[in-house]
Amino acid sequence: MDATRTRLSFDDDHLAERVHIVVVGAAMMLALVVALLLIREIRIAPQAFAKSAAVATGVPAEVVSVATLVLAPDRQIHVGDRKPDTVARLVSQTLVKQTEERGPFGLREVRSYTGFTLVFEPLARAGEQRVAAIYVE
Question: Please, are residues 105 and 124 in contact by the beta-carbon 8 Å criterion?
Fold first, then answer.
């Protein structure tokens, strides 16, 4: 009795075809994963940026961030000004609340005055504290 056995064999032509199919399938799956990640980031990112500044500094959401605060014609505060210079310009203002917290580069200090809030923090590692943000009600 003759028994026939079937063998699993790949001809050169069939092997190249199967490898091509696997590579194309893997590339399509990778493209799909990248597309899904991009869509997720686009949907979530605006919400994260909208709340991050107010939440990180403890400032209410009804305020507006500005680059320059004009107290008088000769007394202006700009983002990036040194803390001692800025505090010297604020002698006539009433300090309502002062909080300190840990920031990415060191101590962050939030000072709330009547009508505005200043955030002081180092803008670089081992740097001096500067005005990082100005919020006006």
Answer: yes
